[in-house]
Amino acid sequence: MSTRTITRHLLPALLLVIGVLCARYVAPSSPAALAVAETPAPSWYRVERVVDGDTVVLDMGGKSVTVRLIGLDTPEVVDPKKPVQCYGPEASKEAHAKLDGQVVRLETDPTQGQFDKYGRTLGYVFLSDGADFDELMIRQGFGREYTYKKAYRYQAEFKAAQLQAQVERLGLWSVCL
Asked: Fold for domain 44-175?
């Protein structure tokens, strides 16, 4: 292969690599661009308050955001229109034990939209150890798998977790039959 052929094929690739490397090290031209470049989008948030087993309030950049957990339904304890349901206090207590004061990762699901009919943000909450809080609550019998209108990302896992809890008669499956 001639030097001319090698140059013709390698030069464009070499220029592309140099361009990419230079772009990574060029300083932004304005303070605003610098702030954006140095501040990645946050994905971890402090739990401000546990409302009940399937609803939490997160501190998202100084703003309190109420999050309704996708795929999880726990017995009611705070709905003024309903009495406290079987295993509701236990589910709420478990949510407090796992979430109070913790930093969690919020994951949304485009199949469910951004908000529910009450204006709450919809998402999954992951604990600092990587565990999916929603699935954990179902697996331990503190809640049920809940599908609202259409399938969601972790539906199969949540249904399997519920089946396991039912078979093992854990939590609400042992007393709320």
From this structure: OB fold (Dihydrolipoamide Acetyltransferase, E2P) (2.40.50)
Name beta bridge partners: 173: none
Q: What is the reported pTM?
A: 0.75
- Both tokens of residue 120? 């709450």
CA dist 83 and 78 (Å) reads: 8
List, as one string, the DSSP characters of 17-64: HHHHHHHHHSPPSSHHHHHHHHSPPP-EEEEEEEEETTEEEEEETTEE
- Is the sign of the CA dihedral 13, 15, 21, 24 positive or negative? negative
Q: Kindly report the average pLDDT of the chain as a whole number.
A: 83
Contact (Cβ atoms closer than 8 angstroms) between residue 102 and residue 84:
no
Q: 42-101, pLDDT tens digit by residue?
A: 489 999 999 999 999 999 999 999 999 999 999 999 888 889 999 999 999 999 999 999
Closest listed residue to residue 54, CA positions, set 3, 118, 4, 2: 118
Q: Predicted confidence band at 7 (pLDDT cuts at 50, 70, 90)? A: very low
Which of the residues are catalytic? 68, 76, 120
Strands 44-52 and 72-73: unpaired
